[in-house]
């Protein structure tokens, strides 16, 4: 596994509000054949301190976002298809509908980007439209990366 600097900008729009967050963190990156796996430890900034997020990106634009630890969820994103996913909260578990509107994956030699736009619903009732722009950059020196 390689050390990477992950920069992620998220936007969540609900019927009543819009919220933007940005996370800059050190994580890991691993290629298995053509599938990229990125992983990082969540913090208070993400609202999921104590959890680990793992993002698996298949070149056929199937993205899985798995969160485990203090919060658990497994979202599957695939353009034009709706997936039903389990989402755990401190108040209990629920099944949510997730439909990707747009996924753009651009890996390069030492970095890459992932852009996703998806809609979440509960019982077919709109909850939010979410946009995630994620960038990762390889770090040759882990000590240097930790000081970022």
Can you put this structure into words, describing what you see?
- The chain has 148 residues and is mostly beta strands.
- Helices cover 3% and strands 72% of the residues.
- It is globular and about 45 Å long.
- The two termini are 19 Å apart.
- The C terminus is likely disordered.
Which descriptors apply to this entry?
mainly beta, 148 residues
Outline of this structure?
The protein has 148 residues and is mainly beta.
Task: Give the helix tally.
Answer: 1
Main sheet makeup: 10 strands, antiparallel
Given helix and strand content, the structural type is mainly beta
Helix content: under 10%
Strand fraction: over 45%
Q: Which descriptor suits the 3D outline?
A: globular
Order of helices and strands: EEEEEEEEEEH
End-to-end separation in angstroms reads 19 Å
Physical arrangement of strands within the biggest beta sheet: 6-5-4-3-2-1-10-9-8-7
Could you give the count of β-strands?
Answer: 10
What Rg, in angstroms, do the CA atoms define? Answer: 15 Å
Average predicted confidence as pLDDT: 87
Low-confidence stretches: 144-148
Layout: helices, strands, pairs:
Layout: E1 2-13, E2 18-32, E3 35-41, E4 51-58, E5 62-69, E6 73-78, E7 82-89, E8 92-107, E9 111-122, E10 125-138, H1 142-146
Antiparallel strand pairs: 1-2, 1-10, 2-3, 3-4, 4-5, 5-6, 7-8, 8-9, 9-10
């Amino acid at each position: 596994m390689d050390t990477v600097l992950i920069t992620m900008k998220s936007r969540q729009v609900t019927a009543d509000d819009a919220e933007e967050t940005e996370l800059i963190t050190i994580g890991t990156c691993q290629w298995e054949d053509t599938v990229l796996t990125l992983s990082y430890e969540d913090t208070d900034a993400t609202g999921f301190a104590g959890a680990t997020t793992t993002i698996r990106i298949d070149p056929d634009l199937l993205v899985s976002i798995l969160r485990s630890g203090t919060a658990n969820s497994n979202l599957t994103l695939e353009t034009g298809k709706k997936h039903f996913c389990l989402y755990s909260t401190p108040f209990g578990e629920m099944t949510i509908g997730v439909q990707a509107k747009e996924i753009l994956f651009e890996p390069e030699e030492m970095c890459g980007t992932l852009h996703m736009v998806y809609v979440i619903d509960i019982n077919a009732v709109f909850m939010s439209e979410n946009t995630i722009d994620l960038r990762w950059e390889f770090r040759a020196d882990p000590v240097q990366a930790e000081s970022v």
